[in-house]
Known about the structure:
Low-confidence stretches: none
Order of helices and strands: HEHEHHEHEHHHH
Mean pLDDT: 79
Number of helices: 9
Strand content: 5-15%
Number of domains: 2
Strand order of the largest sheet: 2-3-1-4
Shape: rod-shaped
Radius of gyration: 32 Å
Helix content: over 70%
Structural class: alpha+beta
Oligomer: single chain
Largest sheet: 4 strands, antiparallel
Number of strands: 4
Distance between the termini: 30 Å
Amino acid sequence: MASSFDQYQKRKLVSSYISVVISIALVLFLLGCLGLLVINSKKVADHFKEQVVMTIYLNDTAKEVEVNQLQKSLAMADYSKEAVYVSKEEAAEFMQGETGEDFMDFVGYNPLKNSIDVYLRADYVTTDQLSEISTELSTKDFIEEIRYDNDLVELMNDNVKKITFWVLIISGLFTLIAVLLINSSIRLAVYSKRFIIKTMQMVGATKTFIRRPFVWQSVKLGIIGAIVAMIGMAVVLYYVNKSFPDLSLMENTALIGILFLGIFFMGIIITWISTFIATQRFLNLKTDQLYY
């Protein structure tokens, strides 16, 4: 009978430990994923900014030497990531592919212009920078027109600022929620042993002696939960990086390493502090207060 009861108590204890580990792991995993988003938010924003194209249309009278020199100078410019020459024939083929019709049959000639598509670096995708670049290039006689989507640039920059602000706010709130949830799980685990704590205190054990095994046990659970969370984060990071290789999410290894270490130590620190506070509370209670 006693053996059956001991097994029941042991299963109950193991079940309690597993629930604490799962709670810690889930909270730290979600917090870590949010951290990965914060770390890579600029890179994601820059990726979308660098899809903006400035198209430079050239006069038909432009000499080949002038066009080649312009393309090379644009490719080497600080604001340029890539400069691609598009002939009027290539532009016509693209339009035919998009519309499914040969518009030159109706017009009788190719009305399109030779052009250079300039893919800009993210730091230069602002209204002021684009206007300055456009003004500088417009001084060349063989450039007929410069086009870019100014409304899209303004909208993109405004949205990036808003998203960055809210991501930081949500990160702060989620960190607070993470601490509260882990603290709640630890307190419940300690609460189930409140009578053991009081019994040890009544037979003369010091508070430090009583507290030590509870703190050490919770820290071990925090370490296990943090390791599980980090494994989950690594899996998510791997598959996201594999699905979106252009973002190069694995490049910033230093920050990612710091984030993983932060999650690991957060699991230790939160469980240590929560257990210390919970055990201290029950140590300070009177015996008759343990039933409430």
